[in-house]
Amino acid sequence: MPGRIVKKISSLFGTDAATRLFLAFLVGFAVYVAWYAGVHYPVGKTRSVENDFFIWYVDNAEHVAQGGLLAIEDYKFNPPLFSFALALAKLFVADYFSAGKIISILSALVVLGCVFILVRKLFDSKVALATTAILGFNKYFLLHSYYVGTDMMFLALTCLSVTLLATQRHNYPILICAGVAGGMAYLTRYNGVFLIPAGIVALVLSSFPGVPWRLFIARGFCFGLAFFFTILPWHLFLLAREGKFFYNKNHLNMARDLLHLDENKDYYWKFIAPKYDSILDVFRHDPVKFFTSIAENFFSHLGNHYNHLIPEYLGIPTALGILALFWCVTKIEINRRERATYLISVLGYFLLMCLIKFEARYFMYMVPFYCLALVYFVQQAVSLIPWERWRAAATSAAFVGITFYAGWIGVSYQWEYARSCNTEIPKIGAFMSFMTDRSQRMLARAGNIAYFSGATFQYFPLIWEVNDVVEYAKSKDVDYIFFSATEMQVRPFYEKFIYYEKHIPGLQKILTWRQRRRYATIYKLESDDKPGALMRFNRGNFETPRLWEEFVKKTKPAQKKIVTLEGLLFVPEEGEYNLGFSAKRFKVRVDGDTVLKNPPSQTSFSIQPVKLAKGFHSINLSFEASAKSVLSPGLFWQTPDGKKSPIPRSSLIFTRVDSSTSFN
Q1: Which stretches of the chain drop beneath a pLDDT of 50?
Q2: CB 632 within 8 A of CB 545
Q3: Which run of H or of E encompasses 55?
Q4: Residue 341: what pLDDT?
Q5: Which of 30, 108, 379, 542 has the fewest CB atoms below 10 angstroms from its CB?
Q6: Per-residue pLDDT reduced to its tens digit, 600-641
Q7: Measuring CA to CA, which residue among 377, 357, 311, 315 is closest to residue 142?
């Protein structure tokens, strides 16, 4: 049995030279993307698909991991399959972000395999090799091969379903597999519903001529049942939870894209979206604009596809290739039905997506088609050369040249994209994880900072005054507020959170980031436990109450001063400790050696590994204190067993407090 399975899989790919080159390309692609994702994609962009990932999918995956499949909670816009896959992948890696990258990488490999099999069936191995190579280097395909989100997983399941329908004999096991794959695509993203008409058309095309109608009906019934029973448990869950079999809130996204795209996004979701209860409400609000927006999307999508999804300077040959592909269906008998099946699925997806605005990731299903069109045009153009030897050489040279050109564009785009990633987020989060946990809440515009900090995410409200934000945070029992220059691009009225040097009532600035033209700040809400500065958790670490009072007095100077603390650090066991501290300027010495410091123009915090022997060590801590200073929440460590905490009273005793105007 295993031998038969291997033989069957091998027959799908073939054994010729082009196939062997494809398999080698697939291995190289996997290695490159895995390396790039691990080294150059530490978190991605704040206002992008990762925001949905951390706010929705990670939260759902955590509920699933802790309470089972029925524990999922946030399902207003998204079906559950990606969250289930994320919870499963998390079993094999350290965090959900890595799990999301693994899902995307594996999905990309499935897409490349399906596209190769599909194009090989529709044309030949050489066309399939060139198409998949150009696809693999497409800048958006390459990006989403490691990008965390549903896009690549949805594309993989969609391509699998269509490939099964277009390339295999329509026996009942194949139809069941195609229906299940289609249902799983729908459970990943609801726009997978386009596979229902696409699948029916595929079955119609495969049933003529000479095939009885009853056989067509049976095949269609088989495919439809497999799709229906795959999605049925989810809709029964929605019926039990919400009282609606097809419950979701995607009509709100449609309302914004068709009727309110000019409105500020935050304003729309706060004030306009609650007015719509169904897609019928969206249509009734403005029927004329509803249909004119769809028509406008049709033409604007064509332009955006031409300008974004196709490599630069290759738009015209790709467009000619699209026309040639549709023409060949009407004129060429070889694989005519299979080609028509695929082309109709592409057309059906494009028409469905006219209901929403353009975003490159929404149209990933179109990218393999454009790659095929480009390759097909080149093949047809070169076929006009009358000499066979020259024709073969020109074909190979054209395919190799276009592949290298697409590769240069795709890889260059990834390196440019890496510069725009919010690489500070995991670094800030790593420091904040010393003092936060899931019981504490962090107010932020995006969910990634809370995830990496270990806190619970609380969405930043659309409130116009900073003081009102503070009151809102208190009403929601928020512990920390994060704001950065990235968020300020859409909330410019909050720039006070970043650039205002004076004290904001109710807030303590405990961390700043000032690197690579990026600015970010974390505030802690003030409590009655004044002054809330250094050693907030460790008052008892001062040898005498008088020493504590002296420290409090010197950390609240009218002018800038350097406060110095001296004492002893007790290490309970030998090993490597990560020490963490935050202040505007600081220096921490252990046994006379500087182990922590920061230039004032960069980050306000530092984390460093230090090897410490068991027993007592001298410690000297100097930091800037003034009305404009960052108020440190404490001195922290991570012990060799991985536990993060403020250094406890049993391990830290300060015996002297001093102040000066400069560092020693």
Answers
A1: 1-2, 5-6, 531-532
A2: no
A3: none
A4: 83
A5: 30
A6: 667 889 999 999 999 999 999 998 887 778 887 888 999 999
A7: 311
CA distance 579 to 617: 14
State the residue for tokens 């609380």. Answer: 458
- Which residue has 């009403």 as its token pair? 475
d(CA 127, CA 116): 9
Give the span between the Cα atoms of 111 and 586, in whole angstroms: 51
pLDDT of residue 5: 44
The two tokens of residue 265 are: 């996004």
Concatenated DSSP letters for 317-368? HHHHHHHHHHHHHHH--TTHHHHHHHHHHHHHHHHHGGGS---GGGGGGGHH
CA gyration radius, the chain: 30
Residue 491 carries which side chain, given as an amino acid letter?
Answer: R
- Three-state secondary structure along 479-518? CEEEEEHHHHCCCHHHCHHHHCCCCCCCEEEEEEEEECCE
Question: What type of residue sits at position 394?
Answer: A
| CB contact at 8 A, 636 and 647 | yes
Q: Which residue has the tokens 């079955």?
A: 203
- Give residue 336's pLDDT: 76
Structure tokens at 172: 């009942």
State the CB neighbour count (10 A cutoff) for residue 307: 11
* Cα–Cα distance for residue pair 249/256, rounded to 1 Å: 12
How far apart CA 152 and CA 543 sit, in angstroms, is 58
Is the separation of the CB atoms in 366 and 305 below 8 Å?
yes
The letter for the amino acid at 3 is G
Report the C-alpha gap between 126 and 116 in whole angstroms. Answer: 10
What local confidence, expressed as pLDDT, does residue 21 receive? 92
For the CA atoms of 541, 619, 602, 467, the dihedral, rounded to the nearest 10 degrees, stands at 10
Task: Describe the strand order of the beta sheet including 456-459 as a list of residue ranges.
Answer: 456-459, 441-444, 480-484, 518-525, 507-515
**Paired tokens of 595:** 């182990």
Rounded Cα distance, 563 and 511, in Å? 18
CA distance 167 to 178: 11
- What would the DSSP string read from start to end of 87-133? HHHGGGSSSHHHHHHHHHHHHHHHHHHHHHHHHHHHS-HHHHHHHHH
Task: Determine contact, residues 449/442, Cβ cutoff 8 Å.
Answer: yes
- How many angstroms separate the CA atoms of 82 and 57, rounded? 7
pLDDT of residue 577: 95
* pLDDT score at 497: 82
Do residues 246 and 238 touch, judged by C-beta distance below 8 A?
yes
* Structure tokens, 367: 């990218």
Tell me the two tokens of residue 387. 């000499």
Tell me the pTM.
0.88
Spell out the SS3 assignment of 222-270: HHHHHHHHHHHHHHHHHHHHHCCCCCCCHHHHHHHHHHCCCCCHHHHHH
Euclidean distance between CA atoms 29 and 22, whole angstroms: 10
Structure tokens given for 8: 């069957």
Using alpha carbons, select from 635, 233, 293, 279 the residue that is nearest to residue 431.
635
pLDDT value of residue 532: 44
Buried b (16+ CB within 10 A) or exposed e, 599-609: eeeebbbbbee
The CA angle 171-175-176, to the nearest 5 degrees, is 120
